[in-house]
Design brief:
Oligomer: heteropentamer
Chains: A alpha+beta (about 500), B mainly alpha (about 300), C alpha/beta (about 325), D mainly alpha (about 280), E alpha/beta (about 325)
Strand content of chain D: under 5%
Number of strands of chain D: 0
Helix content of chain E: 25-40%
CATH topology of chain E: Rossmann fold
Strand order of the largest sheet of chain E: 6-7-8-3-9-10-12
CATH architecture of chain D: Orthogonal Bundle
Bound molecules: adenosine-5'-triphosphate, magnesium ion, nickel (II) ion
CATH class of chain E: Alpha Beta
CATH superfamily of chain D: MetI-like
Family (chain B): Belongs to the binding-protein-dependent transport system permease family.
Largest sheet of chain D: none
Largest sheet of chain E: 7 strands, mixed
Structural class of chain E: alpha/beta
Order of helices and strands of chain D: HHHHHHHHHH
Organism (chain B): Devosia enhydra
Shape of chain E: globular
CATH superfamily of chain E: P-loop containing nucleotide triphosphate hydrolases
Strand content of chain E: 15-25%
CATH topology of chain D: MetI-like fold
InterPro entries (chain B): MetI-like (IPR000515), MetI-like_sf (IPR035906)
Number of domains of chain D: 1
Helix content of chain D: over 70%
Subcellular location (chain B): Cell membrane
Shape of chain D: elongated
Number of helices of chain E: 11
Keywords (chain B): Cell membrane, Membrane, Transmembrane, Transmembrane helix, Transport
């Protein structure tokens, strides 16, 4: 008889789809690693910030020339529907047809495929990816949702939406039920290439209330729960049957200033850079983060992120630091005249953010800025002009460099620069030019230098106020030994979780 | 009960549901672009445009409206933006859990409320009467999410007697049903009490008493029968309160019902699902109102085919 | 046509629509059919009949509280039923009403002064507060209320006093016509007598025409000069008081009079119940022919077929009965 | 009689306390409801070992809970008052019009009542707030619309029977205009119904507000309300029960006392009136 | 003299009310023999109804009765509610004024009648139904068989009142209290109902208390009359004595206020003023303020109910002599 446990994860919500790209979201990321395998994975345990790559569905990779990479595909890997994974499937997974072509099936994935020129299965076990600029970090991208391999034939047959409802991957568990408003049920995939999955079934069950999640944990109904309000950690730790676990996330939380003066939406005082300086300088981010998070996370200088180690320098200080006097001076210098500054915030968008917003608003009010908080309940309401500030977060999961953050989020094709309803930034020509050089530069040292120049321009423009690196936390039943990793992902496959004796 | 009576009730039902469907349609369309909720906040504009096209949101309003009405008539309630499948498929599996929850809650309310109200009336102004009345106000004045969380903390966290929520075990039903039923129980108790008092004071009860009908039979055959009419009215009314309460209760207890679905659908702007839920709610209410009306005709021989007065 | 003083009603018909849901044609309830009557100034017309025969409807129709299906109402020669609403406002002060339930017909939240002044406030807005109060006090004095009662509320009064307030309200505009719909039915005998005496006094002093509606024949006999008997919305007999009581001709009138009891036990020992049976037929579909034939002890086949005409007798009585009219046909 | 007085005096006293707290509560604490103090986060209240500087402790931003409670009470009661008032006025006016309009207008109002009653208001409120965003104006409008159909239906019913009352007939026979009749005779007569309904609607409005806050659709910061405070405190019941229990108690006491007042009024004004 | 069926002594009925205690019935005594009809007349609020409601224990919750009321060897005022419930319907039955509301609108006529037959006479369903039909026919409900399964609202007022009479008589009571049984009915129906009552009384020999404000009803049915004013009996005697030769000024006043259709028209003479409401202090004769013969002694001393003029008894210091009043003058016409 199967003695493996039925495992229950109490989550706060589920995303509408578990298709790797379409479904990419905090709530789906928890589940995807159980369903899919990436081409390449990180050495999660020893190098949590992700410098070192390991084979997964790709057993080996090499850079054939500046613009070409070849990946060798693992043989004998089965999809949940029983079919064997081929290089065709991998090529399709990364293809223009699926992601980056003109009529791509999941256009939302283009941000992962910038610079792709072609993807091709050149033989049964080899896939070749060509780029239009040299990309020494390309394999890093395949640890992201982009790398989750999907079965081509089935995918095309059912379409993106249906696939997202009943996905098929190669991962240790297969989906048996998915009901976005209540639960996802997974079952051990016995043909898993990576060993026997340690759990018989996994249910990700929505339990919206923290109290109910905690009660269920303590009562033994759930084995892992997510999202502990930071103030409740102490309470959680008083229960002997559960353990609190927390990890840095791969998101940076911030406020975007609306730097654009769009006459159709009325005057925007924040388009005055001096006001932005004043507002940034008015905030003691270190104290705020300390108060809200203790030492669980920190307030970064812009783009100085430890998860891209080569570009990280602990000594860097932000251009605009906390300086109340300077804040007053900048305000004085600005053309600000008491106009209302609207702050669009999605309620509950990130943990502790609502509290921070109230704190920031108060500081800004004290500075003499007429802040109006517009706290709304969904993104469509927030992502709409007019606003002076907008909440946003910036994901760094990409390729181990800050490319996604500085270029993906602030480049000329970024949402911030292009979207009709909520664009708030026009990258200066100088920034764009530097960016193009940066992308094409293969040498790390030079790349870092270009990066620093871009950051300097960015800081001068001050289009956002960075707040903190996100935190992911869980409560785990003491019946289990579980290895957590950075970010939202939950690894529940062989080697990551086991029943304690 | 004449056919024309039933027909007129049906007409009213259809009109009400149509009006509700139209209202929610207009409201949802007024509220801007649902696509922004479906794509990542950093998705560029082209992505948004493609999604709009895919879901027909680029069509003119009036065309969307008629397509929607035509769809409803043929049983097609539109496509859920979230799943890409029929909205009906999202809603259908949740109808039963919500029915179970609201049904049990009604049962709790009636089983607790009606006898308590009758006993309170029979012992008018006694300490028991006052106890029942205080308790009914308590049920009414307690925000039900708060009650729900308190129950979880006590019964799950402290005493480990009941599951914190979910739908698998029969015990899972206990706390949500109590949470949802308690407020209505108070309402039933009050209404029963005042209705019984009123009936007790009526001339025909004096006749029954003067003719020597035994007290118990007076209660069971005369009072109860007369009290059924206001009770049925309340039962009709409380459907709405139950549906509203279910939204909150289902959230607290992770009950996989329509209420939960509504909350997530609204925040994620799954228009078709929201519309369908509103239509279902309106239909339920309209049907229950119709049933109440028909029941009146049956319960109160005087009403027969005549219209109920506006006072409800 | 020379303007005729007093109230003249010709061929008055009123129907109520009884709705039975949107899928059915509304039923028609003919509450009054072809009613004629006349009240000269200073005279009282008593209207009697069983419950539901249309007495209140008649009162409401005359006052235009009810739309007419047909017929004319004339007041001092003017066809008021044809007037526009604003034009009728000019006439309305001429006609006032006294109601059955004396306490209930007074707004419990208003002071007596304001109740009695309401007609003045409505029709004589030009009066100052003091003038208005003056008129109210005059009316109160007329009906025998003391001035200090003006500032009290209705619940502080007994039924008889309340009815005096109602009468004061009705006469404060010095109307020509007073319509009393069961104005004394709810009162105790002793109080009823007080009100009857008061009404007679007011009629003498003010030359009022009175339409006195009652189901109580002995009261009507006491106060009315002429009496009209209604049955299922139709006039079945009308005659001067003494003629009617001396020689009731319509079998229904006979039954009505025959049913009234006397306070004299000797009379009652000998008093036989009149031989009419059954109940009033449903007014929604009244019987064809003479409406009374279903209960009439004298009914003949013709009665079930044709409605008898209202024919005038030499002594001024008018009777609608095939059998009675055959006995002594009308003088041409 | 004594019992009636007691049934009136106790809840009136409780409600008075709550209102006094809302109005004069500022004198109880030197702090402002919005001033955060990152050094003073999550301070316990006096009875749990805290200091008198923050009698009820502080929240996660170090804001004084007592000050927030005073402010939240003020907002909650204010909102409920305004909401109740709007609903009462709207419902009463429409009910009065419907009662005397035997025409299209009357039919439309009745249809509106039916429609409103057919869709649970919570759903409407939820959809409106989530979809249009939550401005204070919209919030007040929603609370105001809450329950208008109950007023309208009750007023229409009572007004229709009031129209057949002898004294109204009397006024009509005098020739008093329809508006004047409504104002002078009908409205005062049905006013009891409105008042009693208001005592039912008021606590329901407070509860609706707290329900919406629970679902994350409550009033916007920097404002706060009892429902908001209760909702915010609910996660901390294990650690700092007072965060939820204190505003919860205030909600309870307020709704309780208004309901009891309503009971007493109902007994007093119209012993036969019944409502679910 | 045989033992009377009903003997009432020192009956008082008090109510507590928000505005103080109400003495509705003040020290009343009378008796009634089987087969006898007692007419009780008086103005509204004089205490007629409460006097007899007290006998069956049917007073409102705030009312209390003291004194004695002997019926069939038992003092009704000393019985428990359970014992009274057995007396009600079987020995003592009631018919109330308003036939529109006296029947349970939710139950059929047969259900309401057979229920009584089953509980009070122990009949089984079949027999009870047959008996119910017989009773309805007895009170001359036309087409009784068809109407048995109808609801009260499908009956006219007169028929409903006949049904309540049938119900009251279903268990062959000894005493029937008819409280204004015909007040709400049209005259033509009233006389029919009265005839039925009289017939039943004659056949079953039951004693009837006929409460009314209508002297005509009394004149037609009653043997004895009791005139009640402000909770006390002011005059009592046979129907001829009281109606033809009244001795109490109140009785004469009542009679003089009433137009009588069978007598020549005469001017009516109202009693001035209005009746007290039960809360007043009780000193002297309660009628004195409205009495044309009142002397100072009337306001100071309460007159006892005694036969001062002949056989009939009156509570008056100065009974009216024959011919002195009523002040009714025939109108010369
Ligand atoms: N508003 C109404 N709608 C429909 N039918 C009505 C209405 N008012 C009266 N009727 C009906 O019209 C007929 C005459 O009624 P009306 O009130 O005039 O009688 P009435 O002679 O005054 O009776 P009562 O002596 O009981 O006052 C009755 O059959 C009654 O049911
Ligand atoms: N429940 C009660 N509480 C207080 N007073 C009462 C109560 N019931 C009756 N009364 C008073 O008792 C007195 C006698 O009432 P009762 O009903 O016997 O009068 P009645 O002679 O039958 O009058 P009617 O002719 O109106 O029926 C009245 O003054 C009344 O106010
Ligand atoms: Mg009438
Ligand atoms: Mg009585
Ligand atoms: Ni009470």
């Amino acid at each position: 008889q199967d003695s493996r446990p039925d495992f229950v994860v109490a989550v706060n919500g589920l995303y509408r789809s578990i298709e790797p790209i379409d479904g990419n979201s905090t709530n789906a990321q928890r589940i995807m690693d159980s369903i899919y395998d990436p081409l390449v994975t990180r050495n999660w345990t020893e190098d949590p910030e992700g410098g070192e790559l390991r084979p997964s569905l790709a057993t080996a990779w090499e850079q054939v020339d500046d613009l070409t990479w070849r990946f060798t595909i693992r043989e004998g890997v089965k999809f949940h529907n029983g079919e064997t994974m081929t290089a065709e499937d991998v090529a399709f997974t990364l293809s223009a047809e699926r992601i980056w072509g003109d009529n791509a099936l999941v256009p939302a994935g283009t941000r992962y495929t910038t610079s792709f020129a072609s993807v091709e299965a050149i033989d049964a076990t080899t896939v070749e990816v060509k780029t239009d600029i040299p990309d020494p970090n390309l394999p890093y991208r395949f640890v992201t949702p982009l790398g989750f391999v999907v079965p081509k034939a089935h995918y095309l047959e059912v379409g993106v939406e249906a696939f997202g409802q009943k996905p098929i991957g190669t991962g240790p568990y297969k989906v048996v039920e998915f009901d976005q408003a209540s639960h996802v049920k997974l079952e051990a995939f016995e043909d898993y290439w990576g060993g026997t999955p340690p759990l018989k079934t996994i249910e990700f069950r929505i339990v919206p209330e923290f109290s109910a999640r905690l009660a269920g944990m303590v009562a033994g109904e759930f084995d892992i729960m997510v999202n502990v309000p930071i103030d409740e950690v102490e309470t959680v730790e008083t229960y002997p049957e559960i353990t609190y676990v927390s990890r840095p996330g791969d998101n940076y939380i911030m406020f975007a200033y609306n730097t654009l003066d769009l006459p159709e939406f009325g005057p925007n005082p924040v388009s005055d850079v001096n006001l932005r300086y004043a507002m940034s300088a008015a905030i003691d981010r270190d104290a705020l983060v300390e108060a809200l998070w203790g030492d669980a996370t920190f307030a970064p200088a812009p783009f100085n992120f430890p998860d891209s180690p080569a570009f990280y320098d602990p000594e860097v200080k932000p251009l605009i630091g906390y300086d109340p006097e300077a804040a007053k001076a900048w305000l004085e210098k600005s053309s600000y005249n008491g106009e209302e500054v609207v702050v669009n915030v999605v309620r509950g968008a990130y943990p502790n953010f609502d509290l921070a917003v109230e704190f920031l608003a108060e500081q800004w009010r004290n500075l003499g800025i007429n802040i109006r908080l517009n706290i709304v309940d969904s993104w469509p309401l927030a992502l709409k002009h007019p606003f002076g500030l907008l909440n946003m977060s910036m994901s760094t999961t990409f390729d181990g460099t800050p490319t996604r953050s500085i270029w993906g989020f602030w480049g000329p094709d970024s949402a911030r620069a292009t979207r009709a309803d909520d664009r708030s930034w026009a990258p200066p020509a100088e920034f764009v030019a530097l960016g193009e050089q940066y992308l094409a530069e293969p040498d790390v040292a030079k790349k870092v230098a270009l990066f620093r120049e871009m950051v300097a321009i960015w800081e001068r423009e001050q289009p956002a106020l960075m707040l903190w690196r996100s935190i992911v936390n869980w409560v785990v039943s003491n019946d289990y030994e579980w290895t957590s990793v950075n970010g939202n992902a939950m690894l529940l496959g062989p080697g990551y979780i086991s029943v304690k004796n | 009960m004449s056919l024309s009576f039933v027909l007129s009730k049906l007409l009213r039902l259809v009109l009400t549901v149509w009006a509700a469907a139209t209202l929610v349609f207009i409201m949802l369309r007024l509220a801007g672009d649902p696509v922004a909720a479906m794509v990542p906040s950093d998705a560029p504009q082209i992505v948004i445009d493609r999604y709009r096209e895919r879901f027909g949101l680029d069509q003119p309003f009036i065309i969307q409206y008629f397509a929607y009405l035509r769809g409803i008539l043929s049983g097609d309630f539109g496509i859920s933006f979230r799943t890409g499948g029929p909205a009906w498929d999202m809603v259908a599996p949740r109808i039963l859990p919500t029915l179970i929850l609201t049904g049990t809650a009604t049962l709790v309310a009636i089983v607790l409320g009606v006898p308590a109200g009758m006993l309170a009336a029979a012992n008018h102004n006694s300490p028991f009467d006052r106890l029942v009345m205080s308790f009914s106000v308590f049920g009414f004045a307690m925000p039900n999410f708060f009650l729900g969380i308190l129950l979880i903390l006590l019964f799950t966290l402290n005493w480990r007697l009941l599951p914190s929520g979910g739908f698998e075990h029969p015990q899972s039903l206990i706390m949500p049903a109590i949470t949802l039923g308690l407020a209505s129980a108070g309402a039933y108790a009050r209404l029963t009490r005042s209705a019984v008092l009123e009936v007790l004071a009526s001339p025909f009860m004096r006749t029954a008493r003067a003719n020597g009908v035994p007290p118990l039979r007076r209660m069971t055959h005369h009072v109860l029968r007369a009290v059924l009419v206001p009770l049925v009215t309340l039962a009709g009314f409380s459907i709405g309160a139950l549906i509203a309460g279910a939204v909150v209760t289902e959230t607290v207890f992770a009950w996989p019902g329509i209420g939960r679905l509504l909350v997530t659908s609204v925040t994620e702007r799954d228009l078709a699902v929201v519309q369908l839920i509103v239509i279902l709610a309106a239909l339920t209410m309209a049907i229950s109102n119709m049933m109440v009306d028909l029941l009146y005709g049956w319960l109160d021989p005087r009403i027969g085919t005549r219209r109920r007065s506006g006072a409800g | 046509m020379s303007p005729e003083a007093g109230l003249v009603v010709e061929n008055l018909s009123v129907s109520y629509a009884i709705s039975r849901g949107p899928f059915r044609r509304a039923d028609e309830l003919p509450a009054l059919r072809d009613v004629d009557l006349t009240i000269a100034p200073g005279r009282t017309l008593g209207v009697v009949g069983e419950s539901g025969c249309g007495k209140s409807t008649l009162a409401r129709a005359i006052l235009r509280l009810q739309s007419l299906k047909g017929g004319v109402v004339r007041w001092n020669g003017e066809a008021i039923s044809a007037l526009s609403e604003p034009a009728f406002r000019r006439v309305r002060p001429q006609m006032q009403m006294v109601f059955q339930d004396p306490v209930a017909s007074l707004n419990p939240r208003m002071r007596v002064l304001d109740i009695i002044a309401e007609p003045l406030a409505t029709h004589r807005p030009e009066l100052s507060g003091a003038q208005r109060r003056q008129k109210v006090l005059e009316a109160m004095e007329r009906v025998g209320l003391r001035p200090e009662m003006a500032d009290r509320f209705p619940h502080e009064f007994s039924g008889g006093q309340a009815q005096r307030i109602g009468i004061a309200r009705a006469i404060v505009l010095e109307p020509g016509l007073l319509i009393c719909d069961e104005a004394v039915s709810a009162l105790d005998v002793s109080i009823r007598a007080q009100v009857l005496v008061l009404l007679e006094k007011l009629q003498r002093e003010m030359g009022l025409s009175i339409l006195f509606i009652s189901h109580d024949l002995s009261v009507v006999r006491q106060i009315a000069h002429d009496i009209l008997v209604l049955y299922l919305g139709r006039v079945v007999e009308q005659a001067p008081r003494d003629v009617l009581f001396a020689t009731p001709r319509h079998p229904y009138t006979q039954a009505l009079i025959g049913s009234v009891l006397s306070a004299d036990p000797r009379i009652e020992k000998a008093h036989q119940s009149p031989p009419i049976g059954g109940d009033l037929p449903s007014p929604i579909d009244p019987p064809p022919g003479c409406p009374f034939h279903t209960r009439c002890p004298l009914a003949e086949p013709i009665c079930a077929q044709a409605m008898p005409g209202l024919e005038t007798w030499p002594d001024g009585g008018r009777v609608a009965c095939h059998v009675a009219n055959r006995e002594r046909p009308a003088a041409a | 009689m004594a019992r009636w007085r007691l049934g009136f005096v106790i809840p009136a006293f409780l409600l008075g306390l709550v209102i006094a707290f809302a109005i004069f509560g500022d004198f109880l604490t030197p702090h402002d409801y919005g001033t955060s103090s990152l050094l003073n986060r999550n301070k316990p209240p006096v009875f749990a070992g805290g200091s008198w500087a923050y009698p009820l402790g502080t929240d996660g931003l170090g804001r004084d809970l007592l000050a927030r409670l005073v402010f939240g009470t003020r907002i909650s009661i204010g909102l409920a008052l305004v909401g109740t008032l709007i609903g009462a006025v709207l419902g009463t006016v429409l009910g009065l019009i419907a009662a005397r309009s035997n025409n299209l207008i009357g039919a439309l109002i009745v249809a509106g009542i039916d429609l409103q009653a057919a869709v649970p208001f919570m759903i409407i409120a939820l959809a409106t707030l989530a979809i249009f965003g939550n401005s204070l104006t919209l919030f007040v409008v929603i609370l105001g619309l809450y329950g208008w159909e109950n007023y309208a239906r009750l007023v229409r019913g009572s007004a229709m029977s009031a129209h057949t009352l002898p004294f109204v007939e009397a006024a009509r026979s005098i020739g008093v205009g329809a508006m004047t009749i409504d104002r002078r005779h009908i409205l005062p007569t049905v006013f009891n119904v409105v008042i009693v309904q208001a005592t039912l609607n008021f606590p329901q409005t407070i509860l609706l507000e707290s329900g919406l806050s629970f679902l994350g659709l409550g009033i916007q910061p920097p404002f706060t309300s009892l429902g908001q405070l209760l909702g915010e405190g609910r996660d901390s019941l294990g650690r700092a029960w007072w965060l939820a229990v204190v505003p919860g108690t205030l909600i309870f006491v307020t709704t309780l006392s208004v309901s009891l007042l309503g009971d007493a009024l109902r007994d007093r004004l119209d012993p036969t009136m019944r409502r679910g | 003299m045989t033992e009377p069926l009903l003997g009432v002594k020192h009956l008082c009925v008090r109510f507590s009310s928000p505005s103080g205690p109400v003495l509705a019935v003040n020290d009343v005594g009378f008796s009634l023999a089987a087969g006898e009809v007692l007419g009780v007349v008086g103005e509204s609020g004089s205490g007629k109804s409460q006097m007899f409601m007290a006998l069956g224990g049917l007073l409102a919750g705030n009312g209390r009765a003291t004194g004695e009321a002997w019926l069939g060897g038992r003092n009704l005022l000393g019985l428990t509610e359970a014992e009274l419930n057995r007396v009600r319907g079987r020995e003592l039955a009631y018919v109330f004024q308003d036939p529109m509301t006296a029947l349970n609108p939710y139950r059929t006529i047969s259900a309401q009648i057979t229920e009584l037959l089953r509980f009070n006479r122990g009949m089984d369903g079949q027999a009870a139904r047959a008996e119910a039909l017989r009773l309805l026919e007895r009170v001359r409900i036309p087409e009784a068989r068809r109407r048995l399964d109808m609801f009260p609202h499908e009956f006219s007022g007169g028929m409903r009142q006949r049904v309540t009479i049938a119900m009251a008589l279903s268990n062959n009571p000894k005493l029937l209290v008819a409280d204004e049984p015909t007040t709400a009915l049209d005259v033509t129906v009233q006389i029919q109902v009265l005839d039925i009552l009289e017939e039943l009384r004659r056949e079953q020999g039951l004693a009837v208390v006929l409460i009314t404000h209508d002297m005509g009803v009394v004149a037609r049915l009653a043997h004895k009359v009791m005139v009640v004013y402000a909770g006390t009996i002011v005059e009592e005697g046979s129907v001829e004595e009281v109606l033809l030769a009244p001795t109490h000024p109140y009785t004469t006043g009542l009679l003089a206020s009433m137009p009588d259709i069978r007598r020549p028209i005469r001017a009516i003479t109202p009693i001035p003023g209005h009746p007290p409401d039960g809360r007043q202090e009780r000193v002297g004769c309660m009628f004195a303020p409205r009495c044309f013969k009142a002397e100072p002694v009337c306001r100071a001393e309460t007159p006892a109910l005694a036969a001062r003029t002949g056989r009939q008894r009156q509570a008056c210091h100065f009974p009216v002599a024959e011919g002195e009043a009523p002040l009714a003058r025939a109108v010369a016409s």
